[in-house]
Amino acid sequence: MDISEVASSTRPSSCLGSNPTSVVMWHGMGDTYNSSGMQAVKAILEEEIPNVFVHSVYLDIDERKDQRLSFLGDLNTQIRDVCDQLNSIPELENGFNAVGFSQGGLFLRSAMELCDLPIKALITYGSPHNGVTDLPPCPEDNWLCKRRNSILKKQVYNANIQNSVVQAQYFRDVYNFEKYLENSAFLNHGDVFEG
């Protein structure tokens, strides 16, 4: 038995037949919905699951804006917008499997918990489900980046930062857990998802 026989014999039933379960993907920080990496994943899914519908979540159809929005914006609003986006796609009405990369997995999990999405299975790769405790590291010679991180760490729970810097919204200060619980805009969804 060769590897292709093993692969085809272990495919879930949702991959078989002429109408397989659709797949939704959400990219990670600094990536875009239509990057070469996301296109490659889509191509693999389409090759391995004939006739599958694959949708890559976007925050803006313009790739530069989509990439920027993976760093800047109100995360609760972004998730609400993605819920609306997914609920408007007819191919997803009967349910779909969701695949999230890095922070995209965290956001899909949040969307699954907060919205009426018919997600059958959620698969995440390298997703910070427990938050992050540090900011992305800076190159050794980049003093501007280091200064920015220093300022952000001190202001991470400031309301303006919480509503505009995506990664700050899931930053978890392990040394000041109460402050995290009290001030995390991502944990305190408020009335964003009501009505």
UniProtKB/TrEMBL annotation:
Keywords: Disulfide bond, Glycoprotein, Hydrolase, Signal
Enzyme class: hydrolase
Enzyme nomenclature, EC number: 3.1.2.22
Keyword Membrane in record: no
InterPro entries given in the database record: AB_hydrolase_fold, Palm_thioest
GO molecular function, one term: palmitoyl-(protein) hydrolase activity
Protein name per Swiss-Prot or TrEMBL: Palmitoyl-protein thioesterase 1
Organism field: Ogataea haglerorum
